[in-house]
Specification:
Blueprint lengths: L2 H40 L6 H20 L1 H11 L5 H18 L3 H23 L3 H22 L5 H9 L5 H24 L15 H15 L8 E3 L5 E4 L2 E6 L6 H20 L14 H16 L3 H14 L8 H8 L17 H17 L7 H13 L25 H21 L3 H5 L4 H10 L9 H9 L6 H14 L6
Parallel strand pairs: 1-3
Antiparallel strand pairs: 2-3
Helix pairs in contact: 1-2, 1-3, 2-5, 3-4, 5-6, 6-7, 8-16, 8-20, 9-10, 9-12, 10-11, 11-16, 12-13, 14-15, 16-20
Length: about 500
């Protein structure tokens, strides 16, 4: 190596160190805001909103200033001209993408969106509690306008909804998402129709009864213990809409309890465990850089869906977990693992609530939200018409019609966050979950015996090795191909549900 080359590499290394220090500061501002948002949704007093809105707006503004500063752009240009290794090049790639989007948006708009969403949460919560969409409508209209303006600043020539979708899934484009959703709709509807026509007599009430919140919380902790949740880096709380948030050092889980829905609290807890488990599997040394951050929402959702559905709704899981549940609830004494399995996988013909939906009809709930928010952002649907259109689509796609706004268009928290474009990632993640699980079994062998014995280390180790540890080093398509040996495909999901539900409901041809 020549002296000049050595000096050039040393200079590039020094520049990268300065750049990484800046990236870590930006990330820590965002992570601090995340804790405040968790606090607002879980434990903050009802009257704390005015101050919290200002706090979050300030942190959002500070993070935006650091990211969009001239110094950040200069460091990016220097590093893009340097010969960086794979990990450093990936960090530069990810920050460049964020920088380009952020510098396109005026800071005052960023602050306005942050403050509006902070105030929107209690407005949505109150409107839902009082079953009154009109209370939330003006706020929703403001958020639609703000996010439309936001998208226009980033790319005035693009479909604004596609721009917003890229906030959550930047490397699988909207056309790919639409193709997956259309395929699921086209191929799941006949399966759902066949199930409705089936005369199979499966157990549907294994978890019937009344269950106290304290006892449900104890069982939720049993679930997390069984799956291997790291309590040294996490905690369990309740929230109106369950979620998980945090970093690899502090990944928190929330769930919710309803006295007549024990199964719902179990599956919700497992789902959020999947999210937290991914976060906890990110490399410690990558903290506050893209190398220590999750690879966007489709991959994140694949982890929650894999644990909730492929593990938590499997026969072996109930062979393992039902004895634990019986210790908490004597009313389950006569329930068999098969009855628990059947109840956990029944397909509902009258469910209105997305988070309570079964594994099949869930995706029609997603299609409805996707179509409505896409039309809201495009201007083809007025906010005031959302309840009626929502109800009409439920009647058309699912054969049920909401009687209230609370069980209709106010049931989800996402729009109060301004999260337009988020919903498709749920179905994209479900599809990826099946692909990853198939790849894990191809390498490890069938997992049923291990799940039945409460042994989850092999599966979790495979996920750590093939997904978690990479952070954002690879794009989504690259990560999927490295983990599974093939491109992203819905084949495995459709094979999985056709086989599972065909057997469960005794369907011919499945």
């Amino acid at each position: 190596m020549s002296t000049d080359q050595a000096r050039s590499e040393a200079a590039a290394s020094d520049t990268y160190d300065e750049f990484e220090q800046r990236v870590r500061r930006i990330s820590n501002v965002s992570n601090a805001a995340g804790i405040l948002q968790w606090d607002q949704e879980v434990v903050m007093p009802d009257e704390g909103t005015p101050a919290r809105a200002q706090q979050l707006s300030t942190l959002s503004s500070l993070g935006h200033e650091l990211l969009t500063a001239d110094e950040t752009g200069e460091l990016l240009e220097e590093l893009e001209a340097a010969d960086l290794d794979g990990e450093r090049a990936a960090v530069v790639r990810e920050v460049r993408r964020r920088y380009d989007r952020a510098t396109s948006v005026p800071q005052e708009l960023v602050e306005e969106i942050s403050q509006t969403t902070a105030n929107a949460h209690p407005t949505w919560k109150r409107a839902r509690e009082e079953d009154d969409f009109e209370q939330f409508a003006p706020t929703l209209e403001t958020l639609v306008e703000l996010k439309r303006e936001y998208a226009n600043h980033i790319d005035p020539d693009a479909d604004p909804y596609a721009v917003l979708f890229a906030e959550y899934e930047p490397y699988l484009d909207l056309e790919a998402a639409e193709r997956v959703l259309e395929r699921l709709r086209d191929e799941l509807v006949p399966l759902i129709d066949a199930i409705e026509d089936s005369d199979a007599d499966i157990e549907t009430n294994a978890f019937a009864g009344t269950f106290e919140d304290d006892d449900q919380e104890a069982l939720a902790r049993d679930v997390l213990d069984s799956l291997g949740y790291d309590w040294g880096r996490g905690r369990l709380d309740t929230a109106p809409h369950p979620f998980s948030s945090g970093t690899q050092f502090d990944a928190r889980v929330t769930t919710r309890f309803e006295e007549d829905d024990l199964l719902g609290s179990i599956t919700s807890t497992i789902h959020e465990f999947g999210h937290a488990n991914y976060t906890l599997g990110l490399p410690d040394e990558g903290y506050a850089t893209p190398l220590g951050e999750a690879r966007d929402l489709s991959v994140h959702e694949s982890q929650s869906r894999l644990w909730e559905n492929h593990v938590g709704r499997s026969r072996p899981f109930w062979e393992h977990f039902l004895p634990i549940a019986r210790e908490r609830f004597s009313s389950l004494e006569d329930v068999t693992p098969e009855a628990a399995y059947e109840s956990a996988n029944q397909v509902y013909d009258d469910n209105l609530i997305r988070v309570e939906a079964d594994e099949l009809t869930y995706h029609l709930h997603i299609v409805i939200r996707f179509e409505i928010e896409r039309d809201l952002i495009s201007g083809d649907l007025a906010v005031e018409d959302v309840p009626e259109v929502w109800n009409d689509k439920y009647e058309e796609y699912l054969g049920v019609r909401p009687e209230t706004d609370a069980e209709g268009c106010l049931q989800d928290i996402h729009w109060s966050h301004g999260s337009f474009g988020y919903f498709p990632t749920y179905s994209l993640g479900s599809v990826l979950a099946a692909q990853l699980y198939a790849a894990a079994e191809a390498e490890l062998g069938a997992l049923d015996d291990r799940i039945g014995n409460g042994e989850f280390d092999d599966l979790n180790g495979w996920l750590r090795e093939n997904v978690h540890r990479h952070g954002k080093r690879y794009t989504t398509p690259e990560l999927i191909e490295r983990a599974t040996g093939e491109e992203y495909t819905a084949d495995h999901f459709l094979e999985y549900v056709n086989s599972k539900y065909g057997e469960l409901y005794g369907l011919e041809g499945y």
